[in-house]
Design brief:
The protein is mainly beta and about 210 residues long. Helices cover about 10% and strands about 65% of the residues. It has one helix and eight strands, in the order αββββββββ. An eight-stranded antiparallel beta barrel has the order 1-2-3-4-5-6-7-8. A hairpin with a 4-residue loop joins strand 3 (about 65-80) and strand 4 (about 85-105).
Length: about 210
């Protein structure tokens, strides 16, 4: 729960900082929320995610680079746990920290499509919540995590004029995490709000 509060604070700053200091920032700050799904057989139905990041657009170029931080809940399922096979609720989540590259497809107008790719670290977390009668019923939880390299591929749309300080958009990505034995694949779809500094993100909204 603490991680969610921290990321919500980051999202708040991502929305406030561009409005208060946009004239001093040569890059874009964004925050967003969306949905993620683990693409494996019998995987949970997915869950809500949060993210924030920065993008530095190269002037007079369709290319940009950036960094991204997120917290993605992947849902939960019922299982058994422990030496006595206690009934447990197993919750899955992942924290990606990645470097991103973007190619802004040159188009005119207020809608700008882009392609993106990223590489970085993914912290996969499994939280197991269960109850044991000792003889008094008590609740326990155990958390396991591992960090692996991963990549992501995707794209999205940005909405807003070239001179707009605040932009909105949608972003979809396919993530491949190099977990042990076989890769773990995720799909995420996010809505975003972004604030651009000066120059006003020329690579994000090509003319």
């Amino acid at each position: 729960m603490a991680k969610i509060y921290v990321l919500l604070a980051v999202l708040g700053l991502a929305a406030i900082l561009p409005m208060s200091a946009a004239a001093e920032l040569p890059f874009t700050i964004y925050g967003g929320a969306g949905f993620g799904k683990w693409m494996e057989d019998n995987a949970p139905d997915g869950g809500v995610g949060f993210g924030a990041g920065i993008i530095y657009p190269f002037q007079n170029s369709p290319f940009a680079i950036g960094a991204d931080l997120g917290y993605q809940m992947l849902g939960s399922y019922d299982g058994v746990y422990g030496l006595v096979d206690e009934v447990a609720e197993i919750k899955l989540s992942v924290i990606p920290v990645t470097a991103q590259g973007y190619y802004m497809i040159p188009v005119s107008g207020s809608v700008a499509p882009y392609l993106g790719a990223g590489v970085g670290f993914y912290n996969m977390r499994t939280k197991v919540e269960y109850k044991v009668d000792l003889p008094l019923l008590q609740e326990f939880d155990d958390t396991y995590s591992s960090t692996d390299m991963g990549i992501n591929l995707g794209g999205g749309l940005k909405f807003g004029g070239a001179d707009s300080k605040m932009k909105f958009g949608a972003d979809a990505r396919f993530h491949i995490i190099m977990t042990e034995d076989e890769s773990t694949n995720l799909v995420t779809v996010f809505g975003r709000i972004a604030g651009a500094g000066v120059p006003p993100a020329p690579a994000l909204t090509p003319q």
